[in-house]
Design a protein that fits this description.
Layout: H1 7-101, H2 103-122, H3 132-138, H4 143-168, H5 173-199, H6 203-232, H7 242-320, H8 322-325, H9 332-343, H10 350-360
């Protein structure tokens, strides 16, 4: 159509084409939104289906773990109790073995103590003299006795007097001197008095008691050595623990069997059951997803056709009308204004009408 021969017919055709393009554009926009909704519907159904599969498999797997876990916990409790009974029997056996292997030494210690008491009684020696402490003070022998003497002197001549000074006479030098003099007289007098009236009178008996207590210490060291040897002995055949070992072995076999069954159940679930669950859920949800996908396909086809029509109409406008009207006049409102200008006789063609429009609207 030549716009210069029939201007009004050309403008009417342009308006119709623009209106048609607008309608097609609106239809395309609606179909685009409808397609997005259809896509969201399909994706939502598939997501819900995947979550349902995951939740169902998680619950079923948890049920397997719970079932076998309860059995394993029960066996572990039984195993712990059996081990405790075995340990108790072993400790009792060790006690009996220690008592048996140290009986002669303990009897010897008892006899030595009896001889010491008999000698003290016969010589009228006070019973307080029959001690390691007394022997260390008056008949020192070895580093142990030296250590007892050092500690005793530290307590008697430092801790006690200095403690009394700090508690009752702190700050008084005279009081400190007096306390030390009295302390030396008291403990020194006691020591010397016992030495003169007891040690010197019964020196032979006390020395003999000292030697016998040394024998007792040797015997006690032998007992400790025997105890360590028994505790470190890995041979437990003498404790009659076979019944406990059989019970523990039986429980451990039960644990191994349950663990194997659990592993088999988990393997079956992961390789077979999980797929069955997924197939069941997918089959149940297939109709809804098929319907949603069918609707998506229909909407997509309509949208594709509408989009093609929109592009075609846009190309038609750009090639047939826009070169004469210009992009700024590709609207129905402006074209109608151009028609009004032409109908008033002030312009005979489109170019003149556009110039008049620009003058009227100061463009």
């Amino acid at each position: 159509m030549d716009p210069n021969t029939n201007v009004n017919e050309f403008l009417e055709a342009a308006k119709a084409a623009i209106a048609q393009a607008g309608a097609i554009g609106a239809e395309t926009a609606g179909l685009r939104k409808e397609r997005e909704e259809a896509e969201n519907r399909v994706n939502g159904l598939k997501k819900d289906q995947s979550e349902q599969i995951a939740d169902t498999c998680r619950r079923r797997r948890a049920e397997i773990d719970k079932t076998y876990g309860a059995e394993l916990d029960k066996c572990n409790v039984q195993l712990k109790k059996a081990q405790q009974r075995r340990e108790k029997a072993r400790n009792q056996g060790m006690k009996e073995r220690i008592a048996d292997e140290t009986a002669d030494i303990k009897a010897d210690i008892k006899a030595i103590n009896a001889r010491i008491r008999a000698d003290f009684k016969a010589e009228h020696v006070p019973g307080c003299c029959n001690s390691r402490f007394f022997g260390a003070l008056y008949f020192p022998d070895g580093l142990g006795d030296v250590l007892i003497i050092i500690i005793s002197f530290a307590v008697a001549f430092f801790v006690i007097p200095y403690g009394m000074y700090k508690l009752f006479f702190d700050g008084s030098t005279v009081a400190l001197v007096i306390i030390y003099i009295l302390d030396v007289l008291l403990f020194g007098g006691i020591y010397i008095g016992i030495s003169r009236h007891t040690v010197m009178e019964h020196a032979d008996v006390l020395r003999q008691a000292k030697l016998r207590r040394r024998e007792i210490r040797e015997d006690r060291r032998k007992i400790q050595s025997i105890i360590r040897s028994i505790e470190e002995d890995e041979n437990e055949s003498c404790y009659d623990l076979a019944q406990y070992d059989d019970e523990i072995a039986h429980i451990r076999q039960q644990l191994a069997d349950i663990t194997m069954k659990k592993n088999e159940a988990v393997s079956t679930f992961e390789n077979v059951t999980r797929n069955i669950i997924a197939d069941e859920i997918i089959s149940a949800g297939r109709p809804a997803i098929d319907d949603a996908e069918k609707r998506l396909g229909d909407v997509t086809a309509r949208f594709t056709a509408a989009e093609a029509a929109r592009k075609q109409k846009t190309e038609e406008l750009a090639g047939k009308y826009e070169p004469y009207l210009g992009r700024e006049f590709m609207s129905i409102t402006r074209i109608e204004r151009l028609q009004a200008i032409i109908s008033h006789g002030t312009s005979t063609n489109i170019s003149e009408a556009i110039e008049e429009y620009n003058r009227q609207y100061d463009i």
